[in-house]
Amino acid sequence: MTVSVMVVDDHPMWREGVARDLAERGFEVVATAGDAASAVRIAKAVRPDVVLMDLNLGELSGVDATLLITGELPGTRVLVLSASGEHDDVLQAVKAGASGYLVKSASAEELVDAVSRTAAGDAVFTAGLAGLVLGEYRRMAAAPGDSAEEKPQLTERETEVLRLVAKGLTARQIANRLVISHRTVENHVQSTLRKLQLHNRVELARYAIEHGLDSEPEAQR
């Protein structure tokens, strides 16, 4: 199945160049946008699988657009592609609902792989940034808060998959680790997302860390 992509960037030459490269690699580029307001409006109309989102878009930022798109289009994932690798930018994008974060110094091969993995539901980050995000979630989980909420009931296998998601493994790595099919992993992930009312693997990882699942043994025998 062809992955549909929307490219959002305020620099026309960069925007069109990325769109052309993705189209040449077999993606269906359904739209482009040069500002956040247009991005939100067009995304609602075309409902792409992945929005490739810049952050520096003017008065309304890429973080704002990400928050609106992920809030209103749960079937659309946002992958940030930004010149900034600043920690605050990364964390704000993820908190807004972005599934991943790639810096613009990434190669064409890295971009193609990141878009494909984002469409498949993976959380994709430029090297070093995934640890930053998980570290922030651990810090937030350690802060005082209300822990009296009732936890949804997950199966033993769903919990096992969730624990590996929190460790940063991709769906294929989880499949290899548990000796199950990639499709079975995806089914468990989607089931867990529905039960927890979450949208992507980054949110799953945060949930797992907040509930201490990232520190449990990987297998109970």
TrEMBL record:
The modification 4-aspartylphosphate is found at D54. The keyword Phosphoprotein applies. The keyword Hydrolase does not apply. Residues 4-119 form the Response regulatory domain. Residues 147-212 form the HTH luxR-type domain. SUPFAM superfamilies: C-terminal effector domain of the bipartite response regulators, CheY-like. Pfam families: GerE (PF00196), Response_reg (PF00072). InterPro entries: CheY-like_superfamily, NreC/VraR/RcsB-like_REC, Sig_transdc_resp-reg_C-effctor, Sig_transdc_resp-reg_receiver, Tscrpt_reg_LuxR_C, WalR-like. It comes from the Bacteria. Keywords: DNA-binding, Phosphoprotein. One of its GO terms (biological process) is phosphorelay signal transduction system. One of its GO terms (molecular function) is DNA binding. This is Two component transcriptional regulator, LuxR family. PROSITE patterns: HTH_LUXR_1, HTH_LUXR_2, RESPONSE_REGULATORY. Signal peptide: none annotated.
